[in-house]
Design goal:
It is a single chain. Helix content is 73%, strand content 0%. The protein is mainly alpha-helical and 161 residues long. The protein is elongated and about 45 Å long. InterPro entries: Ferritin-like, Ferritin-like_SF, Rr_diiron-bd_dom. Pfam families: Rubrerythrin. Residues 16-152 form the Rubrerythrin diiron-binding domain.
Length: 161
């Protein structure tokens, strides 16, 4: 499925691509905030709750940053793009008990690695220098998200270094 989504993304023009990633970052933020709420409800350690909350806040800032570039070039109304979000975390339905945390973290880590790879590729292919800088900054941020999730997984005894 990821390959199909990537093939569809490649067909988008710059305006559509920005719209796609803006929506994706905002969706990711909402997902992380819901994960933080569920982690709190499940009584998981504060580190888990705080990590999910922070990642949600950062994803919202990423969306805001992309939206700023978008508005400067295209106005307020986002382009309609009907492609599944490649960075979408399909984890909400899987996080109902403490034991589910392992799967949630693994899925989230994979999602962040994929997002980093895609942002780097977009930066390589981008002709707009301002947007290229934004993509590289976001790739670095996605790497930071991956590292934060990995550190949490190690701390929780879910994975080794």
């Amino acid at each position: 499925m990821v390959v199909e989504i990537l093939n569809e993304i490649r067909k988008l023009n710059e305006r559509e691509l920005l719209s796609y990633w803006i929506k994706g970052e905002y969706e990711e933020a909402e997902t992380y905030w819901i994960l933080a709420k569920r982690a709190r409800e499940l009584g998981l350690p504060k580190d888990v709750v705080d990590t999910f909350k922070r990642l949600g806040d950062e994803s919202k800032r990423h969306g805001d940053e992309l939206y700023k570039v978008y508005r400067e070039n295209y106005g307020d109304k986002l382009a309609e793009v009907n492609i599944a979000n490649v960075e979408s975390l399909n984890v909400l339905g899987k996080f109902w008990k403490i034991e589910d945390l392992e799967d949630v973290l693994k899925i989230a880590m994979e999602s962040e690695k994929l997002a980093e790879t895609i942002y780097r590729k977009l930066a390589d292919e981008c002709k707009n220098e301002e947007l290229k800088k934004v993509y590289l900054k976001l790739a670095k941020a996605e790497r930071g998200h991956y590292e934060a999730l990995k550190a949490l997984a190690i701390k929780m005894g879910i994975t080794e270094e």
